[in-house]
Write a structure and sequence with these properties.
By secondary structure, the chain is of the alpha/beta class. The protein folds into four domains: 6-157, Rossmann fold, CATH 3.40.50; 162-264, PAS domain (Beta-Lactamase, 2-Layer Sandwich); 270-352; 358-501, Heat Shock Protein 90 (2-Layer Sandwich). Helices cover 49% and strands 19% of the residues. Helix 2 packs parallel to helix 3 (79-87), helix 9 (266-317) packs antiparallel against helix 10 and helix 9 crosses helix 14 (452-467). The radius of gyration is 42 Å and the shape is rod-shaped.
Length: 501
Amino acid sequence: MPLPFVTDCYVLGNANMKRKPHILLVDDNPQILEIFSEMLRLQGYEISQAATGKQGLQLVAEKQPDLVILDVVLPDISGIEVCRQIKTNPALTDVFVLLLSGEATSAAHKVGGLEVGADEYIAKPVVWAEFLARIRTVLRLHDTTVALRSSEQHYRRLIEILPDAVLLTDQAGQLTAANPQALALLDYAAADDLLQKTLFDLIEPDEHQRLRTDLEATRQSGSTLSPEYLMVRRDGIPFPIELSAAILTATDHQPQGFVIVARDITERKQAEEELRHLSRRVIEAQELERHRVARELHDGVNQIIASAKLRLRKVQDNAAGLSPSTREILARCYDQLTAALEENRRISYNLRPGDLDELGFIEACHHFSEEFQTRTGIPVQCTIPRQPRRFVPELEQNLFRIVQEALNNIEKHAGAKNIQLEFAWGNRNVKLTIRDDGQGFQPSEVRSTASKRRGSGLTNMRERAISLGGSYDIKSTPGQGTTITVSVPWREPGPHAAAEL
């Protein structure tokens, strides 16, 4: 048999190949089988042979070759039927088929072969170099397809074993896939029911605009990490999640959609709420104890000091016969008792300011600022509208303690020349801002030994803000002062607020 293309053949270098590609040749012509087998072996391929369609199907099932070169006309069943059976068998997904025929060479034959799933259709005669090129092309396609399928299977297995819910969406947010954890999290029994939804259907409507913004940021940066959302279960009950998103790309690296990872943080939120309640109870216990100590100082120690002053004054009034040095000692004792009484009153006031209970937070802040400025000489610009506004006792008490703690920290550590104290309220929140022009500090270093007291004060302020369900923010730079901002929700005091206060 003349082979005009034999001179074009050459041996592939397979020194670095981990596995020879396996080709099954199916042809009822023994001479063609032997010639093709020998020449393909010279190219570095592993070869198997079959002379009939049934034998070919049996070998495909046993050996699962990478490529079947299949004659269309066979003595038992046609190559087209063999190809159809291979392509419809899920176990043979990675087997590629190249149909070869010297008789069924029309365009209709080729279309018929390709429609049953053939990966290539070649009409005889064919030049050997072209035949080899076609084989290499099909095998490259095979290797790429198998690698992609393996990668996809690995990716899907990875998604399925992740503890978090994973959702895949298209560019518009339509769900395209979901792992079992997502079905369980959202209480869907079947994936088909969930995949009829969009990502926006699963998020509370009030948060849709924020979600659009985050998805757009994901398109720009490639990923978005852990913003909190309220996700909705199948029964309509919302629950808190952390949502991470990343761009899902196609094989051409073009954006295809999003990978969404949702983590249920209900337990964490409950723990945070319990921690807030615990912090609130600790603060309430501290305030009760301060109230008790302030009352005892006022009703006990203050009365004793005042009585001692009164008796000492009587002694001074009847001390005409005493020596000058004795009278001087008595005068110094009287002055010291007066100073002790004032100091005791100051301590009692700091423990439980009477005007906070009687007049409210706004007036108490003005009085405290004036007293602080008089005592320390540091000007305090108190920008708080003097309106007859009262808030619930817990809010007034904790905000005043934050003001106290902040100004005490400034006095002891900041070396400030000016302080600004601002307070304002809107429909939902009150905002407290405390600024100083002192030496500033690095907030990350407040736990150092030199800053231990300041760190404790900052922690107390933060805990009080959190206990009110609010936020606490501190900005400070060495040499540029410090700004503390507290924002907390508020409500009108009830009808018995005066009694509560």
